[in-house]
Amino acid sequence: MTFWHFDKIDDLKGDWLFPTETRFGAGRIKELPSILASLNMSRPLIVTDRGLTATPLPELVRSTAAQTGTPLLWAEADQNPTGSQVVAGTKAFHDHHADGVIALGGGSGLDCGKAVALLAGLGGDLWRFAYPRSLEVQAERSPVPIVAIPTTAGTGAEVEASSIITNEEIPVKAGIVNLSMMPKVVIADPELTVGLPANLTAWTGMDALSHNLEALVVRQFHPMADAIGAVGVKMCHDWLPVAVANGRDLTARSYMMAAAIMGATSFVKGLGAMHALSHAIGALVGSQHGLTNAVLMPYVLEFNRPAIEQPVASLAAYMKLEPSFDAYLAHVKALSRTVGIPTRITDLGVKRQDFERLAAMALPDFNAGTNPRKLDVPSLVSILQAAS
Ligand SMILES: [Fe+2]
């Protein structure tokens, strides 16, 4: 079964990239010392976000890394990490004479850590790596190795070569893109997610769903990514409610961690209006990324409907629903209700007078270009109005 059918030879092409070495499974954090040794990392900088310091995880990773070297914990990233935090983390890297980065956390810690490794290796102005300027400097490669350790099942940032960093002067959430930001090794240990509260489990899990789903409906010939995305969507529907209801269920936590990795694997195709708008809203009101995607999800699906009925109906068939767009839409709305997602962007603090501004911020976002329906400011405003 395929989700997109192409019969023009020019459409039957693509640039394909699949992720990196991943150590997946409960308890595998104990492999960190041997991984660091194999990468010749004896003075790693552990980059994470402030929020995580309320949990035992940073100290667990620090003490585990200390079995083979001299790690330094730097926990100064915000929920939406900023350019000045990346610069501060880079200074900490040099002050410590670090030889690698352990990026630890949800999207914030992982993204900040990957950007610190990039800037520590290459120096200069971070924003030259912001899309689309990043296309001109792809020949630059940071030699600083990254070990990624996710503590949520959502972003998938552990298996991809970009970071979302807020440029607070504009403000905009910029996509920092460079192939050297792909972690050398990922430790995907679902035990690290069992302490995640139910609301964050739901929000990050909906981010994983949004990645698999938005990637699947990007109109591009990439059947490997489509297959991964479809299975990832089903996995989120099957296992997210279980993980939210019982955070200690390691089976559900494992499937969700895999689904998050699958989401970031499938979005080599690109994403769409959910993420373009979510980045704008997050930059303006600071709302949590996965939650914002989740609220937008049904409205973006409705907007894209004329362009995506066929792949969404195929997805519904794969999921053993009635093979229609409407059946899947109803299914995703039911999942949102089950895991406690609000239905309106105004619930996130978005104000109607900001719709034009948000649309103008979302349009140049690097995900807007791959949305299955062409976007402009009026169409983005129409999505925001429908969602308010
Ligand atoms: Fe996302």
Structural class determined from secondary elements: alpha/beta
Describe the sheet with the most strands. Answer: 6 strands, parallel
Q: Percent of residues in beta strands?
A: 5-15%
Strand order of the largest sheet: 1-8-5-4-2-3
Could you walk me through the main structural features you see in this protein, from its secondary elements to its overall organization?
By secondary structure, the protein is α/β, with parallel strands linked by helices. The chain folds into two domains: 28-188, Rossmann fold (3-Layer(aba) Sandwich), CATH 3.40.50; 198-386, Dehydroquinate synthase-like - alpha domain (Dehydroquinate synthase-like, alpha domain), CATH 1.20.1090. 46% of the residues lie in helices and 11% in strands. The protein is built from twelve helices and eight strands. It has helices at 32-38, 57-65, 83-95, 107-122, 198-216, 223-245, 250-266, 273-285, 289-318, 325-338, 355-362, 377-386, and strands at residues 21-24, 44-49, 72-77, 100-105, 146-150, 162-167, 172-177, 185-188. Strands 1-8-5-4-2-3 form a six-stranded parallel beta sheet, sandwiched between helices. Helix 2 links the parallel strand 2 and strand 3 (72-77). It is globular, with a radius of gyration of 20 Å. The model is unreliable at 12-17 (pLDDT under 50). It binds fe (ii) ion. Residues 207, 210-211, 275, 289, 293 line the site of fe (ii) ion.
